[in-house]
């Protein structure tokens, strides 16, 4: 599919991943339309979804909009995370398949859909071999249900819906709020605050023994564009780097890059979440020709520098004003 002069509707286009994807689509010559909560685009409302799709008449819909957060946010909002994500996806898919202009629907799912004890590396065939990790199961199951919906709509209505499974993402413009952020922005915020206030130690959640894989957001945007252009099959595709790191090693690396010289303390009363995460990315390589360009250290350096030059500076200016 040639994206030049193709009308693409991106839900969540003003968000963390959305910003990077919009730039890629612009470069490809796409005609972009974005949903926005500031314009009253509450995608939990079916009538609003129908109105947006019928007025824009997009050829491609990329559904990024989601209610997300780290372990703590998932623990505090299991009902909201399930309902909001399920409702938005349900409405967008059902209204999209009724619109004659829509040629493809791209659903961006979540690594949280995988079972808690998935063999390493995670292969797409293992997606249904168990229950997700308990702290984020409502979110993960809501996302996974949308894969089933797309496959059902393909079978019954010949609707071309594809499903991508990106691993944990990070990068500039991420959410650095400690009450709702994921692990990388949370650690950057903690270590930068500790340096600023000359703190001797930083407390991190869990044991540090759990592992994760991380994908720079611009790499994920590249993968989505490749999927739009090249992929039309019902099977889900993992999007990641295939590289795993323990959280304790991640914390040490971020501490080094933030120039934190103090002690890292692990709060074992807090959950680790899923024990390990690392993807088999061979399907993405074979079917999309995708390979991540950003290694973790380089991506973290860029993200931390962005944080220092933007949010960290803003915090200091706010402190001076008040």
Describe the 3D structure.
The chain is an alpha/beta fold and 322 residues long. The protein has a single domain, classed as 3-Layer(aba) Sandwich (Rossmann fold). Helices cover 44% and strands 15% of the residues. The chain contains 11 helices and 12 strands. The protein has a 6-stranded parallel sheet, with helices on both faces. A two-stranded parallel ribbon has the order 6-9. The chain has a two-stranded parallel ribbon with strand order 7-12. Helix 4 runs parallel beside helix 5. The longest helix has 21 residues. It is globular and about 60 Å long. The termini are far apart.
Quick overview of this protein structure:
The longest helix is centred in the first third of the chain and has 21 residues. With 322 residues, this protein is of the alpha/beta class.
């Amino acid at each position: 599919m040639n994206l030049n002069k193709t009308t693409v509707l991106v839900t969540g286009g003003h968000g963390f991943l959305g910003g990077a994807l919009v730039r890629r689509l612009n470069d490809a010559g796409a005609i972009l339309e974005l949903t926005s909560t500031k314009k009253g685009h509450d995608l939990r409302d079916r009538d609003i979804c129908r109105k947006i799709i019928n007025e824009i008449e997009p050829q491609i819909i990329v559904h990024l909009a989601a209610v997300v957060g780290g372990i703590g946010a998932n623990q505090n909002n299991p009902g909201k995370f399930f309902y909001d994500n399920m409702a938005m996806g349900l409405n967008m898919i059902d209204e999209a398949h009724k619109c004659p202009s829509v040629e493809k629907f791209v659903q961006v799912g979540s690594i949280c859909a995988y079972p808690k004890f998935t063999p390493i590396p995670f292969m797409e065939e293992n997606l249904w071999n168990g229950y997700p990790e308990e702290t984020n199961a409502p979110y993960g199951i809501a996302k996974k249900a949308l894969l089933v919906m797309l496959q059902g709509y393909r079978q019954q209505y010949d609707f071309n819906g594809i499903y991508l499974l990106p691993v944990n993402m990070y990068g500039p413009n991420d959410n650095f709020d400690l009450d709702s952020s994921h692990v990388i922005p949370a650690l950057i915020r903690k270590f930068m605050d500790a340096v600023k206030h000359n703190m001797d130690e930083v407390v991190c959640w869990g044991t540090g023994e759990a592992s994760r894989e991380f994908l720079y957001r611009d790499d994920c945007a590249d993968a989505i564009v490749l999927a739009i252009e090249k992929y039309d099959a019902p099977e889900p595709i993992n999007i990641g780097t295939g590289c795993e790191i323990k959280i304790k090693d991640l914390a040490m690396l971020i501490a080094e890059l933030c120039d934190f010289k103090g002690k890292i303390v692990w709060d074992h009363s807090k959950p680790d979440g899923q024990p390990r995460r690392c993807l088999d990315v061979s399907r993405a390589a074979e079917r999309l020709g995708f390979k991540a360009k950003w290694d973790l250290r380089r991506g973290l350096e860029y993200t931390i520098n962005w944080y220092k030059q933007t949010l960290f500076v803003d915090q200091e200016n706010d402190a001076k004003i008040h």
